[in-house]
């Protein structure tokens, strides 16, 4: 997938969770493309096609310092005709800094 390909999700009901309802490293998720993927002028995946992946890293912010961090890796995309295995760099999201009220 090209850098900048947009997708939405993970769907809240599609994430595998532990017994307490929390997500953990290795848990899987599904999401959907917000735009088609076009390679060499040919549409290879349509808007709405399903993507699945897993959580590579999930870190809670520290009480005093630190930021939350989430890394998602996409593993496959399923179209109406094919299932493609993916090899991607992780999508990384880092939470904003905490500010003290003191």
What does this structure look like?
- The chain is mainly beta.
- The chain has one domain.
- The protein contains no helices and eight strands.
- Strands 1, 2, 5, 6, 7 and 8 form a six-stranded antiparallel sheet that branches. A two-stranded antiparallel ribbon has the order 3-4.
- It is elongated, with a radius of gyration of 16 Å.
- It starts with 6 loop residues before the first strand and ends in an 8-residue tail after the last strand.
Instruction: Evaluate the radius of gyration.
Output: 16 Å
Biggest sheet overview: 6 strands, antiparallel
Q: Quickly give the structural class.
A: mainly beta
Number of domains: 1
Low-confidence stretches: 10-14, 16-20
User: Quick one: overall form?
Assistant: elongated
What letter string, H or E per element, gives the SSE order?
EEEEEEEE
User: How confident is the prediction overall: mean pLDDT?
Assistant: 76
Assembly classification: single chain
Number of alpha- plus pi-helical segments: 0
Helix content: under 10%
Report strand %: 35-45%
Please report the total strand number as a whole number: 8
Distance between the termini: 46 Å
């Amino acid at each position: 997938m090209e850098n900048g390909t947009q997708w939405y999700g993970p769907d809240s009901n599609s994430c595998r969770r532990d017994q307490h309802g929390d997500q953990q490293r290795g848990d899987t998720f599904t999401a959907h493309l917000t735009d088609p993927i076009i390679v060499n002028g040919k549409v290879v995946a349509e808007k709405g096609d399903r993507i699945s992946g897993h959580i590579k890293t999930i870190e809670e912010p520290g009480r005093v310092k630190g930021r939350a961090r989430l890394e998602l890796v996409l593993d496959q995309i399923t179209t109406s005709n094919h299932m493609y295995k993916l090899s991607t760099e992780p999508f990384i999201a880092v939470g904003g800094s905490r500010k003290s009220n003191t």
